[in-house]
Amino acid sequence: MTEVPEPSSLAAELSVRELADVPAVEVITRAAVMLMSAAAEKLGLSADDPDDSPHRDLDEARRLITGLAGLVTASAEYLGPHAGPVRDGLKSLQLAFREASAAPEEPGKGPGEKYTGPVW
Hints:
Blueprint: H1 7-20, H2 24-42, H3 58-75, H4 83-100, H5 113-116
Helix pairs in contact: 2-3, 2-4, 3-4
């Protein structure tokens, strides 16, 4: 008798097979988009008034933006036509972080700027 896999293991096996078919640039881009979306939420950018967003957490946003900056910097040569829009999104988040901060760091000291350089 053949053993039927658990639904969760079947889904995991299927997703691993599907992931094997996805080009690296798409995996990197998807990861960047996820980091951007999470950082935007932590900055409160989805709320009408970001200052009143219940999801606003600048410490978490800093971590996400720094992770995004490292990913973008390390993989820029592989992103091809996606590099520009991803960099622009990163820069927008870095500027939004500076604007949201009560005491913004000087240029070059903000989240991810050790990888991207100063953001103006």
